[in-house]
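Per reviewer request, we include the raw input and output of the structure prediction for the construct analysed in the revised manuscript.
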Amino acid sequence: MPGKQVIVVGSGNAAMSAGIAALEAGADVLMLEKAGPDLAGGNTKYTAGAMRIAYETSDALLPLLANRNDPRLPHTDFGTYPAQKFADDLLGFNEGRPLSPEQRVLVSASYEAVRWLAGHGVTYEPIYSRQSFEKDGRHIFWGGLTLAAENEGVGLFDMERSAFEHLGGRIRYSAGVTGLLTKGDKVTGVRVGDEAISADAIILACGGFEASEAMRVARMGPAWAAAKVRGTPHNTGDGLHMAFELGAAQYGSFKGCHATPMDLHMRDFGNLDLPPKERKNYRKICYFLGVMLNARGERFVDEGINFRNYTYAQFGRAVLEQPGHIAWQVFDAKVTDLLYAEYSFRDASFVEADTLEDLARKLDGVDTAAALSTLQDFNAAVDDAPPFDPTVLDGKRTHGLALDKTNWAQRLDTPPFRAFPVTGGITFTYGGLKVDEAGGVIKEDGTPIAGLFACGELVGGVFFGGYPGGSGLTSGTVFGRRAGQGAAS
């Protein structure tokens, strides 16, 4: 008996996971991608490829590694990241909500989903450069985020596409889906311009609405008109519009999004003239090693409240909400060697001075006197007793400020001083569709839309007020796999 005809709309990590799962289940799968070959892959190519998973021991990670003979491994402490810790991290961003059903699925299925991809040739490597610090001759991992796909997001897309095509999947590029075909209450295919393509099931995996300024403003507020779009220009809410036209329920936090501080002078859509691997270099997420000032010369967040994995999504929003939608990240020479590569990237924007007074005068758009006063008050408030230790929440803090820094607070006293201008960047949106246990899209009345499935950014209820780094790609794989299995069954 021939397999079901399944169409996957989109070609990012969630779409590829759905396509691979559907092919495994015996379906014939056609993937329709709005972009051409160069920009295929949705937001996946723009990521660092990190995937957050629950694991009890370091041994659980070894089957996933591209190089199990890496000489650093015997000197590496991966720690543990049990399911309860993953759940607690999600709860910390839920603004008082209990875990959603989608979050429970994400946690419980995270390891198995990533290992499933490994069974299809996707390999991973420890994130030594961004998630570990050397301490007493060992590489100590922190923040619960350990592995990324080999060659980051570009590598993840390439490996998934290879697996998809090896199983017999087909991809059409420059084939943006413009509508859904229906017969009675069932979705029976899609429309690509004037062309109608029939199928037994459709999987929407074409992203959220972050690349639509009009939708951002309507759903999230006027400040989001100024957001830099970090990822693909093609995620303009097409899948949401098509599903809502069929009565799909609106589900999750439509005001929430994955955001991050970005270089102020980055162009929208991650500077598409650069190789995809380099586009991530416009993030600026080492604020925890220094301080951030707004145009009033004031600090506006506790830069050290937690590891940056748990704060960059909220701090990207916080920067965007400042006057002029800008801030400056200030560091001294003590942390130069700890700053990530994006701070020395060829196009990195910064100013430098040998005194804080001169630095404050160079902060374009900032109240100079207020900025200098803030930096001097910060220095005076630093507790010198606790040792600085970036591998843990070290408790090295300030005392007596209106907004104290609670970890990694070091005096800014070693020239040269550098300051980097940033704004808020948006990667993906949180609001989306309600799906059932098979990935089927649910209507407002609680019944499924026959023949319609969804995964990836389109699934609402996974994230609310924030985001533990690396969870987005894992979510795409978890819900993509379910949708693929559901569509093929």
